[in-house]
Design brief:
single chain, alpha/beta, 8 strands, globular
Length: about 375
């Protein structure tokens, strides 16, 4: 009989569902009185969270990160939080502000620059003290950062993305409200969705997987493969958005405990050298990577392989999703219209794109 041993950790509390942002105020009030509210370049997306926090009697210091966070961004955020007397960090947005907020919370209570704590290119110091309380509120469905124990940062001098990682960095609370994703433009939906799909697949074939992560990854993989195209085609499809939020959450839980694989191993240096969205370099057509996976995929995975083959067949050039925007639905909001206009100049479908009548090209046994 083979012995099975594993451990599993995730955010202390997860609140999921449409309208769940309303729970942010009371939950935050139990953790602190002055919040650094971290968001992305579109500060307006943080205003609903700021209103909820202020209604609960919490002083709010707004701070934004314009792109994927680097070590300098985190240092600036820590200085802002200390100057404002913040005892709580709340991050709302995509993976970039969530990772920035997570790193700021960690260094708010631990001395030294981020490079002291970074893996690979830094000293890899362990956090000595518990981070400041951190609440994650994702507005995209992709990174799963709301339930992971690391923050991915760009080390500019080394031109690579690496992690600041510690079991202490798991968020105190993750609030996943699918309503916050309705206004995402199609290109961002595609990039984030591809990341979510990848982050369900890689833990599933990881040699560090366990029965819990396998179940989470399988469930997330099915939800993503069935719902990603729908969410891309109609941003106002709340059911598809909800399924993608669930897939991202499940993938985050799985990867935090079973790790990722070669696709994300390549995405780190590529993202450090080029200003490419993380999801754009985390494509789901990765059967060669599956063949190199450490853990063999058993017969129970045949249905999921068929789903992935079908997705690859229907979506042979994954980046073409962002290159060919549909007309934004009225419910998708002003961001979708702006994204559609900004991508109108992009190229037509590639010449090698298959006809739907042709069978999918099998690239694994």
């Amino acid at each position: 009989m083979v012995s099975v041993e594993f451990e599993f950790a995730t955010a202390a509390r997860v609140v999921f569902g449409a309208g769940s942002l309303a729970q942010l105020g009371p939950a935050a009030a139990a953790l602190g009185g002055r919040a650094l509210l971290v968001t992305g370049r579109d500060v307006d997306r943080a205003l609903p969270a700021a209103q909820v926090l202020r209604a609960a009697g919490i002083a709010v210091q707004l701070w934004s990160v314009s792109g994927e966070p680097g070590t300098a961004d985190v240092e600036a955020g820590v200085l802002t939080a200390r100057a404002g007397g913040c005892d709580l960090v709340v991050a709302i947005g995509g993976g970039s502000p969530l990772d920035a907020g997570k790193a700021i919370a960690a260094l708010l209570t631990n001395d030294g620059p981020p490079l002291d704590y970074l893996e690979v290119v830094g000293r890899g110091r362990a956090l000595e003290r518990e981070p400041a309380p951190f609440i994650a509120v994702p507005t995209t469905a992709g990174t799963g950062s709301e339930v992971t124990r690391n923050a991915v940062l760009t080390a500019s001098e080394q031109r690579v993305k690496v992690s600041l990682r510690s079991p202490k960095m798991l968020p105190r609370l993750a609030i996943v409200d699918p309503l916050l994703t309705l206004s995402l433009p199609p290109g961002v939906t595609a990039d984030c969705g591809l990341d979510a799909l990848t982050q369900c697949l890689e833990p599933l074939v990881s040699n560090r997987g366990n029965p819990i992560t396998d179940g989470l990854a399988r469930e997330g993989l099915g939800r993503a493969s069935r719902s990603l195209r729908r969410a891309w085609a109609d941003g106002g499809d709340l059911e598809a958005r909800t399924q993608m939020c669930a897939a991202s959450l499940l993938g985050g839980m799985a990867l935090a405990n079973a790790a990722l694989g070669a696709v994300h191993g390549l995405a780190g240096p590529i993202g450090g050298m080029f200003p490419a969205p993380h999801g754009a370099v985390s494509l789901p057509d990765k059967a060669p990577v599956k063949d190199l996976a450490s853990r063999p995929v058993d017969n129970s995975m045949s249905a999921f392989r068929r789903e992935l083959d079908s997705l690859t067949y229907k979506w042979p050039n994954c980046r073409s999703i962002a290159n060919h925007e549909p007309h934004p639905s009225p419910s998708a909001g002003p961001h979708a219209a702006a994204e559609a206009r900004s991508t109108a100049h992009r190229a037509s479908p590639p010449r090698w794109q298959r006809s739907p009548r042709q069978p999918p090209r099998r690239i694994h046994p």
